[in-house]
């Protein structure tokens, strides 16, 4: 049986082609993919070959060409012989991590930090980077990483569980308390999901800063208390201090990945404030340790997610209308490059573009 898939061969080389549908292994389920979201990391993978396995990955023994995609949801259509927790017809969101399950980090529950998941070519331990991902009609995934959705949970929202889990992980890391004031640097999808999650967690006032007026308009519709369009970190700090009566914010989430936005986040936290870095930086940033030290501040990082998918599903389930607003376009598989990856890279009206496969 053949299926259609988006296969990445290397830098700027994605081909829509027919590939075989293979049976799931004993510990896998096969899902009919309904939706797959396009992520910023997919854009870098396409444009620059970033994180794509060029040599055989240490855990999967696979390398390009591979099926792209890691933000996806669908319906179970076939079970491996050892699968016990799922049945045919279940709707699932896929946690696309590839981890060994045996190293110290995995055994401690931090499988997002698996010691064997990064290849020698810096290939990432995720489906779509070191193994076939979700931009195909049928995909086999490990039972342990197939998270059951409520029966009436829309599958387009199911495709948001993966990126929203990045935000949930970061908010849990921050130990945000109800009533905290928050700054979010960057109003891309992760910044917007962080906005929704901190609101759900009881944040008092949420400020979001971005250079795109289109994305700030979306942030405003999602409940941001103040939207700012400020590149200069010192001017940003002045505006944050004015809004917070010179107290600064309790927590700043860095979702943009630039030196200036990191500086703005550090400058804008108040006494004992926290800066949580979610973004992957293109170059190594410098950190004003002295500035943080003098106000008792702390710097945290949050990479991916671990053990949060069920929590994320519940949050989305309670706020379906808000999360759906982040979906700005749905496209067919055949247009994944021109109306997906390339459009998302240049059109700031877009937040989350979904490829519809069902």
UniProtKB/TrEMBL annotation:
* Keyword Chloroplast found: no
Under the heading SUPFAM superfamilies, the entry gives: GroES-like, NAD(P)-binding Rossmann-fold domains
What Pfam families does its record include?
ADH_N, ADH_zinc_N
Q: Which PROSITE patterns match?
A: ADH_ZINC
Q: So what family is this one in?
A: Belongs to the zinc-containing alcohol dehydrogenase family.
**Names of the cofactor(s):** Zn(2+)
- Identify the keywords attached in UniProt to this record, alphabetized: Metal-binding, Oxidoreductase, Zinc
Protein name (Swiss-Prot/TrEMBL): (R,R)-butanediol dehydrogenase
> What organism, scientifically named, is this protein from?
Liquorilactobacillus vini DSM 20605
Give a GO cellular-component term.
cytoplasm
Which GO terms of the molecular function aspect are on file?
(R,R)-butanediol dehydrogenase activity; zinc ion binding
A biological process (GO) of this protein is: butanediol biosynthetic process
Q: Which InterPro entries match?
A: ADH-like_C, ADH-like_N, ADH_Zn_CS, ER, GroES-like_sf, NAD(P)-bd_dom_sf
The Enoyl reductase (ER) domain is annotated at 10-355
| Keyword Metal-binding set for record | yes
């Amino acid at each position: 049986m053949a299926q259609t898939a988006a296969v990445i061969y290397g830098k700027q080389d994605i081909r829509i082609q027919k590939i075989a549908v293979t049976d799931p292994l004993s510990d896998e389920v096969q899902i009919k993919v309904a939706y797959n979201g396009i992520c910023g990391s997919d854009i870098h993978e396409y444009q620059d070959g970033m994180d794509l396995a060029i040599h055989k990955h240490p855990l999967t023994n696979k390398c390009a060409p591979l099926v792209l995609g890691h933000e996806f949801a669908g319906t179970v259509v076939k079970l491996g012989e050892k699968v016990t927790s799922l049945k045919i017809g279940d709707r699932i969101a896929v946690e696309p991590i590839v981890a060994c399950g045996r190293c110290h980090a995995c055994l401690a529950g931090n499988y997002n930090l698996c010691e064997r998941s990064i290849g020698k070519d810096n290939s990432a331990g995720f489906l779509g980077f070191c193994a076939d991902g979700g931009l195909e009609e049928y995909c086999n995934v490990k039972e342990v990483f197939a998270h059951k959705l409520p029966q009436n949970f829309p599958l387009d929202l199911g495709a948001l569980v993966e990126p929203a889990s990045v935000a949930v992980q970061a908010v849990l890391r921050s130990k945000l308390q109800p009533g905290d004031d928050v700054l979010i640097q960057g109003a891309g999808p992760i910044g917007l999901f962080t906005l929704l999650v901190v609101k759900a967690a009881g944040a008092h006032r949420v400020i979001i800063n971005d250079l795109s007026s289109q994305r700030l308009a979306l942030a405003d519709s999602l409940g941001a208390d103040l939207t700012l369009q400020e590149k200069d970190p010192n001017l940003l700090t002045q505006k944050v201090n004015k809004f917070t009566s010179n107290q600064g914010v309790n927590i700043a989430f860095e979702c943009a990945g630039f030196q200036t936005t990191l500086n703005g986040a550090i400058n804008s936290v108040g006494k004992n404030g926290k800066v949580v870095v979610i973004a992957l930086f293109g170059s190594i940033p410098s950190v004003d340790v002295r500035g943080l030290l003098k106000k008792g501040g702390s710097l945290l990082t949050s990479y991916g997610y671990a053990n949060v998918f069920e929590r994320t599903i519940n949050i989305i389930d309670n706020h379906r209308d808000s999360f759906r607003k982040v979906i700005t376009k749905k496209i067919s598989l055949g247009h994944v490059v021109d109306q997906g990856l390339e459009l998302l890279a240049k059109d700031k009206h877009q937040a989350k573009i979904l490829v519809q496969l069902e």
